Amino acid sequence: MTFGTDMMTSNTTGDTLLKVEHLSMKFGGLMAINDLSFEARRGEITALIGPNGAGKTTVFNCITGFYKPTMGMITLRQRDGKEHLLERLNDFEITKSAKVARTFQNIRLFSGLTVLENLLVAQHNALMKASGYTILGLLGLPAYRNAAKAAIDKASYWLEKAELIDRADDPAGDLPYGAQRRLEIARAMCTGPELLCLDEPAAGLNPRESAALNTLLYAIRDEGVSILLIEHDMSVVMEISDHVVVLEYGQKISDGTPDHVKNDPKVIAAYLGVEDDEVEEVIAVELEGGDH
Ligand SMILES: Nc1ncnc2c1ncn2[C@@H]1O[C@H](COP(=O)(O)OP(=O)(O)OP(=O)(O)O)[C@@H](O)[C@H]1O
Predict the structure, then answer these.
(1) 32 lines ligand 1 (CB under 6 A)
(2) Best of 26, 27, 63, 199 to mutate for ligand 1, by most ligand atoms within 8 A of CB?
(3) Tens digits of residue pLDDT in 13-43
(4) Nucleus: is it a keyword of this entry (predicted)?
C-alpha cells in the first residue's frame, strides 16, 4: 500500500521534478540568491547545503511561495505531466495544486492536540470537500464516512512509518523532540505531496532519533516522493542524499553526488573559509595536524 500519491508509477523515478532556473532574490542591496540553477529528480533525496547565510532558507522560501523571487523560474512537473510555475503561485496554491509540502526549522505542531489529530487536521481540505461543506454532509453522506476512514488509514500508515503509532492518542506536545520532528514530517506526508521540503530535519537529534529520521526519509523516498532538504549535519547529508547542491554567497559552487561534492576543492574551501587557491595548502596542514 502506498499513500504518496494516487498516480505513482515507478518508471518516472529519476525524471526531473523540480527545475530552478536563474533564480535571484534581492533584499534591498543584498543579493541573497544570485542566478541559481539546479534540478531535483523524482524519487530522490536532494540536499541543499552551504555555510551560514549562503541562501538555503531563501531558496526554500522561494520554492514554497513565502517569497516572490526577484528573477527566475521554478517549474514543478507532476507525475501526470502537469507543470506549475511556482514563482507565480501563492503558498496555499503551491501546497494544494503543485503538491509541495514543507517543514520549518522550528517545530510547528498543534501541541494540545493528539498525535493522530495533528495528522487528521492536515487532511481537513479533503474531508470538507467530501462533506459537501454542509452539516448534513458531515453527519450523513457516505462520501464523508469513506473520506474519514481514508484519512484515518493514511494517518495510521504514516504513524507506523514514523514509529509513532504507539503514541497516537498522546498530546503532540508530550513527545520527545525527535518524535515531534517525525510527526511534522508524517503530517506533511498526509497532504499527499510530490515534493517534500525539509528545513534542517536532523538539527538537535540524538543518534537514535537521527537513525529513526533516516528510516522515515527512506520510506518516503521509496514511495516515489522527492525530498529537498537543508541540512547542516554533513554525516546526515552524505549518508542519505542521492544528490547534493552546494551554495555559497547565494551562488552554486558544486552540484553532484555526495562523493563528488565532498571531494570538490571549492566546497572544501567554502567550509574551511579559505580562498580556492589556498585549499591544497590548508588541506595539507589539516592532514599534518591530524597525524600528530
Ligand atoms: N527577509 C529577509 N530580509 C533581509 N535579508 C534576508 C532576509 N532573509 C534572508 N536574508 C539574508 O539573506 C542571506 C541568506 O540568508 P538565508 O537565511 O537564506 O541563509 P541560510 O543559508 O539559510 O543560512 P543559515 O544556514 O544560517 O540558516 C543572509 O545574508 C540573510 O541575512
Answers:
(1) yes
(2) 27
(3) 679 999 999 999 999 999 999 999 999 999 9
(4) no
Q: Tens digits of per-residue pLDDT, 84-118? A: 999 999 998 999 899 999 987 777 778 788 998 88
Distances (CA, A) of 209 to 58, 100, 110, 271: 27, 25, 21, 26
**ipTM computed for the complex:** 0.96
Residues 85 and 207 in one domain: yes
CA-nearest residue for atom 25, ligand 1, is 52
Give the end of a domain, one of 143, 161, 191.
191
DSSP state of 7: T
Sign of CA dihedral 91, 94, 99, 100: negative
Ligand 1 atom 5: residue of nearest CA: 27
| Residue nearest atom 2 in ligand 1 by C-alpha distance | 27
28 and 91 share a domain?
A: yes
Regarding the beta carbon of 56 and ligand 1, being less than 6 Å apart is answered: yes
d(CA 179, CA 184): 9
Of 146, 167, 191, which residue is a domain's last?
191
